[in-house]
Amino acid sequence: MQYATRGACALKVNGKSRLLIADDHQIICDGLRALLASDPKLEVVGQAGNGHEALRCVATLNVDVVIMDLSMPQTNGVEAIANIKRRFPETKIIVLTFHKAGEYVRAALDAGAVGYVLKDDGHDELLIALRSSLSGQTFLSPGICQEVVAGYLRGRQGVGPRSWEILSRREREVIKLIAEGYRNREIAEHLSLSPKTVEKHRASAMKKLELHNTAGITAYAIENGLTVR
Length: 229
Description:
six-stranded parallel β-sheet, 49% helix, Rossmann fold, 2 domains, disordered N terminus, Arc Repressor Mutant, subunit A, elongated, 6 strands, single chain
C-alpha cells in the first residue's frame, strides 16, 4: 500500500473511507497507520507534517476525514482546521492531541472540528470518533468533557463574551494577526513596531480579555469573526 509522505500526496481509490494524518511526529503517524489498518472500512491515504501540507493534501486527495494534531510547525492545527473547512466544508476533521484545556477544545470546535480525542485515550475512542464523524455526529473525549461542561456552567453564571472594545487599536491589530498565525517578529515587521512592543501589546490584550495562550486568542478571534480566511 502506498502512502503520501510529508510534502507529497498519492491517490488510491478502493471505496473505503479515506483518511489523512496530520502530525509532525513520525512515530505517532506510524502507530496510527498500524491501528487504522485493523479496520477494513478505513484507509490512510496521506500524511502531512504541518498545516500547510495538510491543506495541500486535502486539495489533492479525495479525503473523507483528517486526523489533526494541534501543535505543528508553520501553521498550527486550529488554523489548519479553519482553512480546510473554508475550502473543503465536507471534509471531517478530528483533533488528536495532548491538550486538555478548554481553550484548545473551544478553538478546535469553533474552527470546524467534529471530534476531539486525547493522545492518552484508548484506541477505541479514536475509532468511535471516526465512525461518529462519518455518520455526521460529533465526538468528545471523556477526558475533556469536564472542561466543556465547566465552560458552559461559567457561561450560565454570567461570564459573558469579552469585549473587543476594551482593547486599544494596536492591541486589536496584534491580537488579530496572532490569531491569523503570524509570529511576533512578523507582526513587528507588518506594523513597523519592535518585537518588544508587540509582546507588550500582546500581554496587555491577553490580560484584558482573560486569555492565557495562543489557542485562547485564536478561539476568541474565530468566535468574534476577526480572522481573515
